[in-house]
Amino acid sequence: MSETPLLPDSKLPALGTTIFSQMSALAQQHQAINLSQGFPDFDGPAHLQARLAYHVSQGANQYAPMTGVAPLRAAIADKTAGLIGWRPDAETEITVTAGATEALYAAITALVRPGDEVICFDPSYDSYAPAVTLAGGTLRRIALQPPAFRPDWAAFAALLNAQTRLVIVNTPHNPTATVWQAEDFQALWQAIAARPIWVLSDEVYEHICFTPQGHQSVLAHPGLRARAMAVSSFGKTFHMTGWKVGYCIAPPALSAEVRKVHQYLTFSVNTPAQLAMADMLRDEPAHYRELPAFYRARRDRFVRALSASRLRLLPCDGTYFLLADYSAVSDLDDVAFCRWLTTKIGVAAIPLSVFCAGPFPHKLIRLCFAKRDATLDAAAERLCQL
Ligand code: PMP
Ligand code: GLN
Question: Does the reported pTM lie above 0.90?
Answer without folding.
Answer: yes
